[in-house]
TrEMBL record:
Integrase catalytic domain mapped to chain residues: 97-260
Top-level taxon of origin: Bacteria
One of the GO BP terms on file: DNA integration
Pfam families named among the record's database cross-references: rve (PF00665), rve_2 (PF13333)
GO molecular function, one term: nucleic acid binding
Protein name: Transposase
């Protein structure tokens, strides 16, 4: 063996055995911020965004030394449906790639267990950067809940025009009150085919992330803590910190900011 080869091996061995405290702290903080759900790829992107150069492979080594294991749910089979709504067609037709904000939104409702019983969360998602722009929590999965989430999104985004909103065929989206609100806002309605979750895949993916990354296995203890946790997850983590694969590793907020700067330049 050449002396230079031995020296190179010895130097790299010593380097690999030494864990940089600053890097270990950054990885631990990113892991905690993700509610223990982020893997090496996500950890590397979060830490690198904080001006620390970290590859996914080195992130995996640091996570291994810190005994950090990401928590992700298993894949489940999905049913496929073909029947469209009698009056509202599937205008979106799974064209989820949108070239600008506030052109296409999608929305859905999911259930969350709390110590007070079932709570229901309605969310409106902007497809451009996969950014939640409106949401509401209630003990009843009715049109009042979905309208509240829609109102929040419509007001927060500056009352956009020429907008399409996609939903499933749930009664809280087909009700007269909800359809009347869409008409008042000038929003074109699109609906998934019955029983076909893939027609609203980005919305399903967001709820999967929320429940796997943030929600305790037995739910939150009460309604107020649920509301606080959901707000914190969306505003502090999902929109501002969590890198999204659809955005090439950018957060939803950062992708929108880059779009606005490019538009104004």
């Amino acid at each position: 063996m050449h002396r230079s080869s031995y020296s190179y091996w010895l130097a790299n061995t010593r380097h690999s055995q030494t864990l940089c405290p600053q890097l270990a702290k950054a990885v631990q903080e990113a892991f905690d911020l993700s509610y223990g759900s982020a893997g090496a790829r996500t950890i590397a992107r979060i830490v690198s965004n904080d001006e620390l150069d970290l590859s996914r492979y080195r992130a995996a080594k640091v996570m291994n030394k810190l005994s950090l294991k990401s928590r992700q749910p298993p894949k489940t089979p999905r049913k496929m449906g073909k029947k469209e709504h009698v009056t509202v067609g599937n205008h979106l037709n799974r064209e989820f790639d949108v070239d600008a904000p506030d052109k296409v939104w999608c929305t859905d409702v999911t259930y969350i267990w709390t110590g007070d019983g079932w709570s229901y969360l309605a969310v409106v998602l902007d497809l451009f950067a996969r950014r939640p722009v409106g949401w509401a929590l209630s003990s009843s999965p009715d049109s009042a809940l979905t309208i509240k989430a829609l109102n929040m999104a419509y007001t927060a985004r500056g009352k956009p025009r020429n907008l399409m909103l996609h939903s499933d065929q749930g009664c809280h989206f087909t009700s007269k009150a909800y359809c009347k609100k869409l008409k008042a806002y000038g929003i074109k309605h699109s609906m998934s085919r019955r029983g076909n979750c893939w027609d609203n895949a980005p919305m399903e993916r967001f709820f999967r992330s929320l429940k796997s990354e943030c929600m305790p296995k037995k739910g939150w203890p009460d309604f107020l803590s649920t509301k606080h946790a959901v707000n914190n997850y969306i505003l502090r983590y999902y929109n501002s910190v969590r890198p999204h694969q659809h955005n090439d590793g950018l957060t939803p907020a950062k992708k929108e900011n880059i779009y606005k700067k490019t538009l104004n330049s």
